Amino acid sequence: MVGGGQGAFIGAVHRMAAALDGEIELVCGAFSSAPAKSKASGEALYLPASRVYGSYEEMIQREKQLPEGERMDFVSIVTPNHLHFGPAKAALENGFSVVCDKPLCFSMEEAYELQRLVRQSGLLFALTHNYTGYPMVKQARAMVRNGELGKIRKIVVEYPQGWLSTKLEDSNQKQASWRTDPQRSGIAGSMGDIGTHAENLAEYISGLQITELCADLSTFVPGRLLDDDGNVLLRFDNGAKGVLHASQISAGEENNLNIRVYGEKGGLEWHQMEPNSLIVKWLDKPKQVLRTGVGDLSPEAAAHTRIPAGHPEGYLEAFANIYRNFAICLRARLQGREPDPIYQDFPTVGDGLRGMRFIQRVVESSESDQKWVPF
Amino acid sequence: MVGGGQGAFIGAVHRMAAALDGEIELVCGAFSSAPAKSKASGEALYLPASRVYGSYEEMIQREKQLPEGERMDFVSIVTPNHLHFGPAKAALENGFSVVCDKPLCFSMEEAYELQRLVRQSGLLFALTHNYTGYPMVKQARAMVRNGELGKIRKIVVEYPQGWLSTKLEDSNQKQASWRTDPQRSGIAGSMGDIGTHAENLAEYISGLQITELCADLSTFVPGRLLDDDGNVLLRFDNGAKGVLHASQISAGEENNLNIRVYGEKGGLEWHQMEPNSLIVKWLDKPKQVLRTGVGDLSPEAAAHTRIPAGHPEGYLEAFANIYRNFAICLRARLQGREPDPIYQDFPTVGDGLRGMRFIQRVVESSESDQKWVPF
Amino acid sequence: MVGGGQGAFIGAVHRMAAALDGEIELVCGAFSSAPAKSKASGEALYLPASRVYGSYEEMIQREKQLPEGERMDFVSIVTPNHLHFGPAKAALENGFSVVCDKPLCFSMEEAYELQRLVRQSGLLFALTHNYTGYPMVKQARAMVRNGELGKIRKIVVEYPQGWLSTKLEDSNQKQASWRTDPQRSGIAGSMGDIGTHAENLAEYISGLQITELCADLSTFVPGRLLDDDGNVLLRFDNGAKGVLHASQISAGEENNLNIRVYGEKGGLEWHQMEPNSLIVKWLDKPKQVLRTGVGDLSPEAAAHTRIPAGHPEGYLEAFANIYRNFAICLRARLQGREPDPIYQDFPTVGDGLRGMRFIQRVVESSESDQKWVPF
Amino acid sequence: MVGGGQGAFIGAVHRMAAALDGEIELVCGAFSSAPAKSKASGEALYLPASRVYGSYEEMIQREKQLPEGERMDFVSIVTPNHLHFGPAKAALENGFSVVCDKPLCFSMEEAYELQRLVRQSGLLFALTHNYTGYPMVKQARAMVRNGELGKIRKIVVEYPQGWLSTKLEDSNQKQASWRTDPQRSGIAGSMGDIGTHAENLAEYISGLQITELCADLSTFVPGRLLDDDGNVLLRFDNGAKGVLHASQISAGEENNLNIRVYGEKGGLEWHQMEPNSLIVKWLDKPKQVLRTGVGDLSPEAAAHTRIPAGHPEGYLEAFANIYRNFAICLRARLQGREPDPIYQDFPTVGDGLRGMRFIQRVVESSESDQKWVPF
Prior knowledge:
The structure is a homotetramer. The first copy, chain A, contains 12 helices and 12 strands. Chain A is an alpha+beta fold. In chain A, α4 (85-93) links the parallel β1 and β2. Chain C binds chain D through residues 149, 153-154, 156, 158, 160, 162, 165-166, 214, 216, 218, 220, 229, 231, 233, 235, 241-243, 245, 247, 249-253, 260, 262-267, 280-283, 287, 368-372, and chain D through 149-150, 153-154, 156, 158, 160, 162, 165-166, 214, 216, 218, 220, 229, 231, 233, 235, 241-243, 245, 247, 249-253, 260, 262-267, 280-283, 287, 368-372.
């Protein structure tokens, strides 16, 4: 693991998600660029001191020299955005597959380079757009693909949060601090941090691609350096229209990612905060509430469910589905066989590249007088 | 009453709303442009034949000749859009106050003329943007005005319906037929029919005015002549940003008008389909659910509530609040006194004019390559 | 109308419910046992002074002397429980049909006598167990009757309120005052006021009858004279089991009547506070949410719905369905024809008698050491 | 681990819950009474063959002989009810602390013996009444203890499931099979399996104890040998009244454990299927929705929350809280220090004993003509 030392948020999430299914064991880490902090973090995680490194470069070089079967199988990167590219590149160049937090990296150049390295190396690369790991998101995607809704006409995807309603970055809040800093976050704030999740979810469920967009980004908190709110009109490659809005100043909202997809025959509605329900609305038939584990769901939904209906699975379980699928595919790769296609289902470097382009395009559109910017 | 003969929808709604509080009695009508139908409709409503007229012109002339105290006190206009202007003008010119269904009329010219006639006559004019009649909408407006949310930053208002997902106008469905016909509905379909409700609600609750917009209207059902879906970015006069989308092809949606308003200190959420709850979200405090009739609500909310908490009031009660307030104000006017300001609260010809301009601007914007169109 | 003078709650509800559909007109009343108050109330309701009476006896005698077509068609009784019997008896003995608030009366003796008078006179008698007027309650009843749930096994019906959590009767609150007074309310408090609604709803929807019960009534507020909470185990005539609990000290509850009915194949759930949804749960199939006005509902549900889906109908509309059905049946009776069976659907004196017995039995059971008391 | 071989449900839950926080590692197991199955299960869990045993007796003896630091630290028992006592007794007698699935055991005699062994050995014993592990349950308990609701008056606790609506035990469904078998489950079916969870939750949150009860148990599915539904009236030691009902034939219900607690000042409502919300209702103040991770919650709620608000934690996280607290207390014990009291919070052998008595009393009550049975 690269990053995720004491005080970090997403590092612990990755560790819990990886541990849940008993398929992945944390064996080493460079948890901080401060060697002492890395060491303390490793100790708290019950790692032997010999596997706790002072930098990702050291970790990759030293692990590479360990005998096969003993060295790490892959690298998890859980650092802020500007520190994704370095370790990802080093890992890929040294033969390690990668799990990387989103967004993919810091710039389009980095994104293209990572895509090139993945293709060239043939290694696995998973990007943790974790919200696609929920069983009911899989179900939604399956229903759209099976044509149950008919041709898709409209998509509304929202990601309101309220935690940056005040200038939290002026306190020492670590999460707020790097997310609002152009040096570490990139050219976008809320649009990069959560807008990309919304974009990814919409494309994942609908199977469509955004072709044009029109964005209005705002910075509401005085003195903030990046956008903290954005509203975007979307057009998709099949003629569907859409709305995407994401915000970190929607006061009182927790983490309210949600999506509605309407086709000719019916509509879907899913809310991340009640992730085990998928509401299905029909023309002139009663609304249905599909529930994780209840009735005849798609094989994709079933394969990503651990426990019986009514025992709620949450964020960590969905996140763990990314890791579990990655582990299954990696194991298959190491054993020279094809994994079951149902598990070949995690966000890839290609998704990461689309996310980076989304960031670029919404910023570009927001600054433009032209109505539509091609994606 | 003008319009609302047998087979109509909104006419019966107006009659029930007007009757609910025992303050208004239906005394006469020109229920259809077909005299026989008008007559049959009047009979079914237990009106004496002498007060059932073959046309609105006849009604207004004949009623005017009745002695005061016997003749009608005001005119309700419940016809399709293209037939609002004629009876409204005639009523105002002959000294009758008016309640008129929305949108105000057919064109901006008509709108300006009606505004002029209202001003000149000093008569009352109510436009039935009925959704502002709900107690919890009054509560939301009061909370914004009192500064409880701080400065408003973002507004999301939605009005999805699904009933026009197929080409219903090809059957004989009366409601679908005129609403999708440019000759009767005007230059917009869904945007005029329901988009104006959304626009009115957003401005009513927030006390803000839209200054610029960017719209993307669509006609998804092949062969349909007017928009059946629209997505709009909004900018408000205090710097707030917004999203408005309205649709009649959101398959499976009933009549799901809803709004969220976010300020610096908190946010509000209201759904027309569960109108007795107003969700209030705070920065770092528990979410509250305000309910009609529970606890210390604003005087405005209390004045528009009829029955104790937990006895749900619905669409007709909200609609009746428009009529009740209009009746109170009209009675005060007839008695030469000022009505209690709390009841001087119904949509006016000015709101109607803004609605007509909204229609004009979204159509204009949708056809334009320019990003922002001033309101 | 008997009762319902200024300051009363349920009288205004009856008037609004009766007025809504334009089928019933308030023509006279004895609104209070205090003649001056009755007079003032009548005036505020725009009644001519000649039709406002000082007592129900006077009203019935004087109206009876008016020519047919001019005199009142029926009597509405909206007084406290101990004042139902007198006017009901007088009305029935003088040829007037009756609408009476619930519970039926004060004692079993009165109940039997009223049943006898109704049978003997052949007049109509409606008891306003208004919650059975909701379209989705009709739908639930139809689904059970059609066997869609299979044989019913379990019923859970709840009616929690919180408004009597403190000793409100010590203030001058009129509603609290008579409801907690054995001289005016009868032998039960919460069980009579709202427990009977729960009992009626369970039997109406399920088509079953309670055969045995086991009750534990409590008075939580010190000094209160009647029960303010009760928990009851039920057994039904087909072998189904049930739980009924009603309370007026469930702090923070509004008027949360709700019911769940489980059969061999599926279950139903309905909440009075969101009355336009009926949740249907199936063995191994997705849950459905049936909604007023959406899709193929039962004819009974459709016949009791006024406006399109998504325009919420509430308490007054359900109450109005009782009045509307009563009016239709009364008109048919006056015209000497059979009403459409779909409208022969309002609670009768027989339902009232069951309610009175329910009150008697739960009080008896609560005082007994014996587990089961036959109904 | 004892039990939990391939095909089991709760064994995998225990393993995921134990693994989540990186504090507990599965080191050995006797996963099945069939040695070959135990071996295969252990292999699938990546355990060395040497630590996979053919029986719990073998496991305990062999592990005991391993050097300290190498041998297991405690035993998890995840077998059906009739197989709890044997391994628990053996573990306690050989110096191993125990985590045991609920209900505690098979008979009152076994329960008393286990309580005696725990007291005598001074070892730790945790019973996985996992629903008390949810942060919002901790919050509810804290609010009651702090007197925020005033004196508690009424408790309604429900646990409806529908999965045994048909005679599933006649198929080869392993879960249904042992749960409906008196030889393996004990004297109660649904009341032992889920009724005890409801009883435990009510006492945990309220801090009260049941003193009397009156039960009506049923077996609805023909040929079933144990109760599949039960309705119970409760009385608590402070004078509060309650209702508990649990069912496995409530067709269409998933795992709908929920509770409402009403005091003099307000009420609480919590639903296991939406576990991150705690609804708080007040006399004459707006309802609040407390949410995991939002605002100033109790220290107990905060200490059992892993991730930020709006990232839903579910069943496994709550279950993991039991394991995590047990691990913290065990580690403190091994290190000879007192654990932080906030983590000394998991169900004990004493809770298990109360659960066994609850089973005994409801069965006794259900067969009795006497109304109240002392607890």
